[in-house]
Write a structure and sequence with these properties.
single chain; 7 helices
């Protein structure tokens, strides 16, 4: 992925989606929100909140196929999810969703919010592509994604890369995290 350093700029959904096939080595995300409005519109969220087992096999088939293709090319997808004590419904949904993401080759780790605050992680959601490009996800007050801001200025990118390194260090694999939750929270 060739990226020139310049000031931040906003991109639309198509250009943002294209980043997930154009990166060369790693795509890494920090998730810090308590809920995502878009999740609540899905059939899987309805299954989850009604207490039914969630069928992840058909969910976002195109997204899953694209991730598998990229992983087969030797690329890595990773993320750290920040979770409250006790976890919100949206965070528990994403913990369950980690089964699907992991099945397509993504490494997912989880970190308690108080630990994230203690190590100084930003309260922002973002993707880092190849340690050179940050896609900052901007949400409105109702937890809807409103735009994506691309950041390529090296000093700004380095701030996010440092946050990634700290998050990766302190977070634990999602299965280990889930096993530590009280049964009623899962």
């Amino acid at each position: 992925m060739s990226v020139r350093a310049r000031g931040p700029r906003n991109v639309g959904p198509d250009e943002f989606d294209g980043l997930f096939t154009r990166f060369e080595h790693t795509a890494w995300r920090l998730e810090t929100r308590r809920r995502y409005a878009s999740d609540e519109l899905t059939d899987t969220y309805a299954q989850f909140t009604s207490g039914e087992p969630v069928d992840w096999t058909g969910a976002d088939a195109e997204w899953c196929a694209q991730r598998r293709e990229q992983v087969a090319l030797g690329k890595r997808f990773e993320r750290v999810r920040v979770v409250d004590r006790p976890p919100t419904t949206g965070q528990l949904y994403l913990l369950d969703n980690a089964r699907r993401n992991s099945a397509v080759g993504e490494e997912i780790r989880t970190l308690w919010r108080d630990d994230a605050d203690r190590v100084g992680l930003p309260a922002e959601d973002f993707w880092i592509f190849d340690s050179r490009l940050v896609a900052l996800l901007n949400f409105d007050d109702t937890d809807n994604l409103v735009d994506v801001e691309l950041i390529t200025e090296p000093a700004a990118v380095l701030r996010y890369v440092r946050a990634r390194d700290a998050a990766q260090h302190y977070a634990v694999p999602y299965k280990e995290f889930a096993a530590r939750l009280p049964a009623k929270a899962r």
